[in-house]
Amino acid sequence: MQRGFQISLSIAAVVFLSDLALGQQPYTIGSRLGDLKGTVKTVNNGTTKVFSFLNIPYAKAPVGALRFAKPEPYGRWEGVLDATKLGSACIQPPDPFNKTTFKSLSEDCLHLNIYVPNNFTSEKRSVMVWIHGGAYIYGSGTLYNGTMLAAQGDVVVVTINYRLGIFGFLSYNETIARGNYGLWDQMLALKWVQDNIEDYSGDPSSITIFGESAGGFSVSLLSLIPRNKGLFHRVIAESGVSDTFLSLSQHAKLTATALGDALGCVYDPLTRNFKTVLYCLRSKSVDEIFKVLNIFGTYFISSLTIEIPFAPVIDGDLFNEFPSKLLSNPSSDELAFFKSLDMIIGNCNMEGSLYLAMTPEEQDRYGFNISTGIPQEFFCDNFIPAIVRTYFDSNAKVSKAICEEYKVNNDPDEQSRQVLQMYTDLFFISPTFSSLFAHSNSKTYKTTNTFQYLFNNKTPLPYGAPRPAWYRGSGHASELPFLFGIEDLHYRHIDVTEDEFKLALIMKDLWTNFAKTGDPNGSGLPKWPQFDPSMQTYLQLNYANLTSLNKYEAERTKFWLNTIPNIMHTNQN
Biggest alpha carbon distance in the chain? Predict the structure, then answer.
């Protein structure tokens, strides 16, 4: 049976770390912010050195008055900074599907990790900054060891932490607690990289940001903020773009108010006492906050509506419009910045594997067991109406159209697969295409490159909710081990085939070539033509058939980008 990630919406990635204590030596450097002691180790059979500098603070601890506020730069440190060990992950609840346990969780978590290949030289290297996923709720930069990616591509790799959940995205959509603190953290980390990466042999004029799932949402959102111009130059969005219903919170103020009330920080609509409520929330302990979140967990997120409770918002500061409007406005500054960046956008072919994590309670409520299949009656009568109620103004014609498009008669297994396919197409594939079309459209000025990929190879990491017998495809996050950590798996008694190793090397070369030149192509690699709106060429990442193809899921893309909007438009008229 094919193995792979089985990951809930609450999980974007699980990646093994190398044993950093194996064969490493201390290594101290000076930087403009102070001296720091990292480590150096040899990899690739002793042919390549990689220097690691871990747990470097880029912002002050976001506690006290800095909780629910924009981050402030950390600045210089005293003495020699110990950068030999990974630091704390940001505060987050336990993840039922991710068995990785962090050594520590802390609000004082705004740190980054740097991996430098070979020797420090005057020749600067391109930089790749990884922004992790996890539904804006889970994860950490500490989960991703950049050693092998740095060594293979001769690039500097940076992984970052940013505030998560309520601590990163609480919002009242007011001048008090606007929200988006996690995005502000990401931006401050990028500013730190821009100002300091030369001390680590990095080139500040060649920076690529890349991320997966909520990390993909994040890098795409950052690409719509013109004030970020110069902080980065290329973008790789894996399994997530800004133009999806999942990238922003739909009910941030309602969620924040309900949470505050439950904590005893009661909002008064007559006096609009947001400032008082915010001071009260800052006084609460992490344990008090999570106790309430646990009680109200089912209110904040549901497998039916597929909403992320604490996520970025339209705040009147970073964003004034939804991404779909910004991308469709040819005169917007946001679109001009977006198109000024070289870009790779891609997906796994069964992102809907996330839906396998539907809670047992909800399965019981609707009278089925997901391991044996998802009934058509539930799909058309419950799941689709909930989606349409949340995202399509309860339009009954939209519900009917989706049901007709994806229902399968007399084949329960295929019907179950089509439920996951609908999830994949709605939340991932069709937004990918709308972003690709906006980026590659030559009717507006453009000199940058656009590439699309589809990952449909098996993956060697059997994590997450169990895969039913009827399941097919490469699930959400399946590509991640090929970029981070596949070399370490045999040490952990996980089988990795020769073909999987080969694909991992190819993907690292493609990703790092793009980071260095804006073009992933290179000697000995599969030809990867650029995406354009007419041919819609993409690279299929499958070692058995590693080739470029055209117009992935063209009819289904047309259904979501044309048919459904036309139904909505007709109904409004």
Answer: 71
**Residue at 195 is within a domain:** yes
Say whether 493 is catalytic.
no
The string of pLDDT tens digits covering residues 405-417 is 999 999 999 999 9
233 has catalytic annotation: no
Domain count, the chain: 1
- Give the span between the Cα atoms of 108 and 454, in whole angstroms: 37
Residue 300 predicted with pLDDT over 60: no
Q: CATH number for the domain including 103? A: 3.40.50.1820
**pTM of full prediction above 0.90:** yes
The 3 state secondary structure assigned to 55-94 is EEECECCCCHHHCCCCCCECCCCCCEEECCCCCCEECCCC
- What gap in Å lies between CA 217 and CA 108, rounded to an integer? 24
Percent of the chain with pLDDT over 90: 79
The residue from 213, 220, 239, 474 that is catalytic is 213
Find the domain containing 535 and state its range: 25-353+428-550
pLDDT tens sequence across 458-496:
888 755 578 899 999 999 999 999 999 888 776 676 788
Q: Of 399, 416, 476, 500, which residue is the catalytic one?
A: 476
Contact 539, 519 (CB under 8 A): no
pLDDT beyond 60 at 18: no
**Among 334, 351, 500, 553, the one annotated catalytic:** 351
Residues 39, 26 contacting (CB under 8 angstroms): yes
Active site residue 476: yes
Looking at residue 24, what DSSP letter applies? -
